Amino acid sequence: MCGIVGLFLKDQSLAPQLGHMLTEMLITMTDRGPDSAGIAIYGDEVEGHVKLTLQSSGPETDFTALDAELGATLGTHVTQRVIDTHAVLHIPSDQFDAAQKALAEMRPGVRVMSRGDTLEIYKEVGLPRDVAARFDLSRMSGTHGIGHTRMATESAVTTMGAHPFNTGSDQCLVHNGSLSNHNALRRKLRREGVTIQTENDTEVGAAYLTWKMMQGATLGEALQSGLDDLDGFFTFVVGTKDGFGVLRDPIACKPAVMAETDQYVAFGSEYRALVNLPGIDIARVWEPEPATVYFWSHADGQTIHDKAA
Known about the structure:
This protein has 309 residues and is an alpha+beta fold. The protein folds into two domains: 3-44 and 126-308, Glutamine Phosphoribosylpyrophosphate, subunit 1, domain 1 (4-Layer Sandwich); 45-117, 2-Layer Sandwich (Alpha-Beta Plaits), CATH 3.30.70. It has helices at 18-28, 59-62, 66-74, 96-106, 128-135, 182-191, 201-214, 219-229; strands spanning 3-9, 36-42, 49-55, 79-83, 86-92, 111-116, 119-125, 144-150, 165-168, 171-179, 232-239, 243-248, 257-260, 264-268, 284-286, 293-299, 302-308. The strands form three sheets. The chain has a seven-stranded antiparallel β-sheet with strand order 7-2-8-1-14-13-15, with helices on one face. A six-stranded antiparallel β-sheet has the order 9-10-11-12-16-17. Strand 4 and strand 5 (86-92) form a beta hairpin. Helix 6 (182-191) packs across helix 7 (201-214) and helix 7 (201-214) packs across helix 8. The radius of gyration is 18 Å and the shape is globular.
């Protein structure tokens, strides 16, 4: 049993409140997942740069002067913002691959949480309220975000086992449920060259979607394929640079509720995660249908909604 929340803003005047609203939603789901918590925020894009979010169990050592050392190695300028056990690096896009290789040599104990133009992921072991406070999540702004509170069933309670999982640029996944064929699928994806860092079944689900999109599928097509290739019970919320998607398995035994107004689209494992959102009393509220892909996107400055069974 885990808790999922998601918020997609149609009204960008709400962007400064995104972190606050998501934090309240996340904390409400504490009893569905007290082991660890995480949140993905899609914020400002830095032109010509890629964001790399890192985590360290020894941030005082690993992050001290990391930007200067990495910049000197690459022969370029690197900026760094440290928040508790995490750091966000801004790296020139054309130096990104070299930066990842250099980081693995310079700071072997540092773990990559996310990469992308706008995506930042913060996650740690502990109660959702404590995790949110450590990273000051309520002060973060952005266009959309997703979060997760975990009750571990498939792997150990660790930072790397917490959700969201990032397996492709600006793409991440949170999951409530259990994938029964994740071991076989993990072996297959690794043979295909897809990087999977943990034994967590959710990371396999995220990597599967990345793999399908690497082959040319849209997110909606990748999610649709997952209905055939992923065994088990699942509710997925997937974040991308432009929006987020929702999918439940054909049996749909894991709870889910959505709400939509002129200002936002929201997702929660239970309705109580949504009750403090502005205008929720006039929102259209519904339970997403089984085996149906839902997706909202900011494309060409407009909000696009897609639904495919």
